[in-house]
Amino acid sequence: RCLVANASRCGRLGFEADAALAAGGRFGAVASVSGADHPIVLAQLVAGTTFGTLTGAGVYDLVGLAPAESAPDAEQRLAGAATPISSVGVVARLGESDFAAAVSSAGILRVPRGQLGAVAVEGAAVHAGDYGAVAATGDSRTLIRSQLAKRVYDQLAAGRAADEAVKEALADVPSGVVVGVAAISRSGAHAAANSPWELAQSD
Length: 203
What we know:
Order of helices and strands: HEEHEHHEEEEHHHEE
Radius of gyration: 17 Å
Low-confidence stretches: 1-14, 68-85
Structural class: alpha+beta
Number of strands: 9
Distance between the termini: 31 Å
Mean pLDDT: 79
Number of helices: 7
């Protein structure tokens, strides 16, 4: 993971982050962002606009920062300090009836610059609505093709328990493809993966 403020230098090293947030009927995502230590904050900014998803230079335009800028406050303006080196997915219940889902990815090594991952595709990695929220990480092509997060959410909306909806989605993932899913509904929450996956839960 590139921890320098100079975004163009980060891009040359091949690290590009994606992040997405779904909550309160809003969806915001950023993709192919270099130099941002907390891209989820940028996704939150996008969620407050009508853009939906922004990539690369469009993200920098939104926050008023040039991609190659290396001013002392550049990292602060791009939202942060230390960052994880893998993908993180979160689902939450906000009060009695609101739900939220978010996924942030530090990127994948040895892929072409500008490659769009599942995180930035609405319904693939995150989805939230009146009946719950879903966050998924793993193989992007699988998440996009199956619209996995939306598919699990639709099961929640139909009255299925979160554990049943997650297990059914994982059962349909092709052998050898790594995917993890977390879901929350009015009746409970569940998270699982078809490979070793670190899980954390908080009330």
